[in-house]
Write a structure and sequence with these properties.
491 residues, alpha+beta, Porin, 2 domains, five-stranded mixed β-sheet, 13 helices, 39% strand
Length: 491
């Protein structure tokens, strides 16, 4: 039974993490194809440069649940055929992407064949190479992209006078330009669309439940006319569905041609050699090219941001006023999302003995940020900030007043971070919070020793250190920092 098969498949695939729901264009409403045939569409996605299915990646868990519900509704006896095309996002070397799509197709086919021995319906699993057609469909269906960016992207995708490798190179080097809404258009596509192109594109062709019995009693020739011999024909006939639902547009045959028609401009021999494995003759069993070149990754993912306020820093200390407390900050960037985490080390050692003013601070802060805009590879723009800190200080205000103590604080605030080129960024913000401290006041002795003494006039035997308390609520920090991103493994 196909329903049992698909459920078993999805349960057997690697899954150890909690579900993260981020539903994309996964399950499409069914559309009539021909007289009695219908087609349903689903997508399952892969991480970058990875052929292992993960149920908690993007919308995979939600898509799988919807797919199982749909299979239960249609009934396994009404399934005619299943077509699965594995794609890679158009980044890097074509040969590597083709090999990657083969691996994804082979992974799916291996598990299906193991779990579905003796299946009665047609199954076609094949690699589709680079997902240029899917990219065009997603851009057409994108309701957030500006018309300027949409037009530029679709025009360049439709240009058949250049190879796909040339198109990739131009995309990476700014041929799509920038707009006031998206910023760099190629970067917008990377974040919002490319990760959804690394997928298994699944089409299920089936008969309506109320017409299945009628079709089964008809002549064999009539059944043959209603079925699609290679899965592609029923989808290609569904022109109304293609216009109403841009995501339904990928015809299996068209996608195959578009994804492998123009591999690379290097040699014509390479084009001919690499296009053949995509044919349906050997869809999954094709061996991986020996010594296949690794993809030229267009961009590595920054994992840490290191910044300092040394060029310009303003720190407010109650009763002391504005001063400077140099700091070093490290921010950790998760793979994607809106949240980042980091810490600051602040240190100052300003000594002005002639004025009896001292600023000696050691402060450790741990904080988290929530950026307003979701980012996959860069964290920038407006953000909210929350932090906790622990400090040790020695502050001299004048000859008759100084404090020495420790304290703890919490604060919240906001800031703005923007990039200056690929590596450098400017980070600025402000915070408001509570600081609780236990301290001892001290004064200058004005004697031959030149020492400072605790400001205490009682019995020395009764003196207890850190007996004073300070509670401050108000502005705690105004900062401007310049930073540098440190890059790690590629996405």
């Amino acid at each position: 039974m196909l329903t049992t098969l698909i459920i078993s498949l999805l349960l057997l695939l690697p899954s150890s993490k909690a579900v993260q729901s981020n539903v994309s264009l996964s399950i499409q409403d069914t559309e009539m194809v021909g007289g009695v045939m219908k087609v349903s569409h689903a997508q399952l996605h892969f991480r970058w440069d990875n052929a292992t299915y993960e149920s908690d990646y993007l919308d995979n868990a939600v898509a799988a649940d919807k797919l199982m519900d749909l299979l239960r509704e249609m009934g396994h006896e009404n399934i005619d055929s299943v077509s699965v095309v594995a794609y890679a996002s158009p980044e890097g070397v074509y040969e590597h992407n083709l090999m990657l799509s083969r691996k994804r197709a082979r992974e799916f086919s291996r598990i299906l064949e193991k779990e579905a021995a003796g299946m009665s319906f047609k199954l076609n699993v094949r690699p589709g190479g680079e997902a240029w057609e899917l990219l065009a469909q997603r851009v057409k269906a994108d309701t957030s992209i500006s018309e300027t960016a949409r037009s530029r992207t679709l025009n360049q995708l439709a240009d058949k006078s250049i190879s796909n490798d040339t198109r990739k190179w131009r995309f990476m080097h700014g041929s799509l330009g920038a707009t006031s809404k998206e910023g760099d258009v190629y970067h917008y596509l990377l974040i919002n669309h490319y990760r959804f192109l690394r997928c298994l594109d699944i089409h299920i062709h089936y008969k309506e439940a109320d017409t299945a019995s009628e079709a089964s009693t008809g002549s064999a020739s009539e059944v043959q006319e209603s079925e699609a011999p290679a899965v592609a024909e029923p989808v290609s006939e569904a022109e109304p569905a293609s216009e109403a639902e841009p995501v339904e547009a990928p015809v299996v045959e068209e996608t195959k041609d578009a994804s492998v028609a123009e591999p690379a401009e290097a040699t014509e021999a390479t084009e001919t050699k690499e296009a053949e494995p995509v044919s349906e003759a050997e869809p999954v069993e094709a061996a991986e090219p020996a010594g296949a070149p690794q993809a030229e990754k267009p961009a590595r993912r920054p994992i840490l941001g290191i910044s300092t306020n040394l060029p310009y820093d303003i720190t407010y200390i109650p009763q002391y006023g504005l001063t400077s407390v140099p700091s070093l900050s490290v921010e950790y960037y998760p793979v994607n999302g809106k949240y980042s985490f980091g810490g600051d080390v602040e240190f100052s050692h300003w000594l002005h003995p002639e004025e009896h003013r001292y600023n000696q601070i050691r402060n450790l802060t741990l904080w988290g940020r929530r950026y307003f805009k979701r980012n996959e590879d860069r964290f920038k723009g407006l953000y909210l900030l929350a932090n906790i800190n622990a400090a040790q200080y020695g502050l001299g205000f004048n000859a008759g007043k100084g404090w020495e103590g420790e304290g703890l604080g919490v604060s919240v605030g906001g800031g703005w971070k923007f990039y200056m080129g690929k590596y450098f960024f400017l980070d600025m913000g402000a915070a408001l919070g509570l600081f609780y401290s236990w301290y001892d006041p001290y004064v200058w002795g004005n004697d031959s020793t030149g020492r400072y003494y605790y400001d205490y006039s009682g019995d020395p035997n009764d003196f207890v250190k850190r007996s004073k308390r300070l509670v401050w609520f108000g502005p705690t920090r105004l900062y401007i920092a310049i930073g540098l991103d440190i890059y790690g493994k590629r996405k």
